[in-house]
């Protein structure tokens, strides 16, 4: 007697076809696409932020602030120097005291300042005001009467 395998199913039954194994798709195109999307998003966001900053800075560069300089003292006159405009300065030789000048400061980081010197032994003082509020003040007396009121920049 010879061995015969058991029947594999009903007569005429064929086993399901064997498909070739599925090839796995490479992962690197997806990773590359995500990295490219992130780079584009970061660059686009940076451009938007830079544009907004440039617009704001341009507006601030044209910003104008009105300040008042005052110099007082016991002397009849003093030599006075002050900032005005945009980094411009002016000198008043022998200006009568009390001295007062309203100036327009233009720009984002423009300084405001006034300094004065008088005769030895006199007293002097200076002030910088904006809207009636004192922003800086200084007084001096003695052998060298010199005062300097300075603000590195005036914010509006």
UniProtKB/TrEMBL annotation:
The keyword DNA repair does not apply. It comes from the Bacteria. GO terms for cellular component: plasma membrane. The chain crosses the membrane at residues 27-55. Gene3D superfamilies: MmpS1-5, C-terminal soluble domain. It is found in: Cell membrane. Keywords: Cell membrane, Membrane, Transmembrane, Transmembrane helix. The keyword Cell membrane applies. Belongs to the MmpS family. This is MmpS family membrane protein. The lineage of its organism: Bacteria, Bacillati, Actinomycetota, Actinomycetes, Mycobacteriales.
């Amino acid at each position: 007697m010879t061995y015969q395998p058991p029947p594999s199913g009903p007569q005429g039954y064929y086993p399901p076809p064997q498909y070739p194994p599925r090839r796995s798709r490479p992962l690197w195109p997806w990773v590359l696409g995500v990295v490219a999307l992130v780079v584009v998003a970061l660059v686009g966001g940076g451009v938007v932020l830079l544009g907004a900053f440039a617009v704001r800075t341009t507006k601030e560069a044209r910003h104008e602030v009105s300040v008042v300089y005052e110099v007082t003292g016991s002397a009849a006159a003093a030599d006075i120097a002050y900032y005005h405009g945009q980094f411009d300065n002016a000198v008043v030789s022998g200006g009568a005291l009390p001295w007062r000048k309203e100036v327009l400061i233009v720009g984002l980081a423009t300084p405001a300042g006034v300094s004065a010197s008088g005769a030895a032994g006199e007293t002097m003082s200076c002030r910088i005001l904006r809207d009636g509020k004192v922003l800086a003040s200084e007084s001096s007396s003695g052998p060298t009467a010199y005062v300097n009121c300075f603000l590195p920049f005036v914010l509006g």
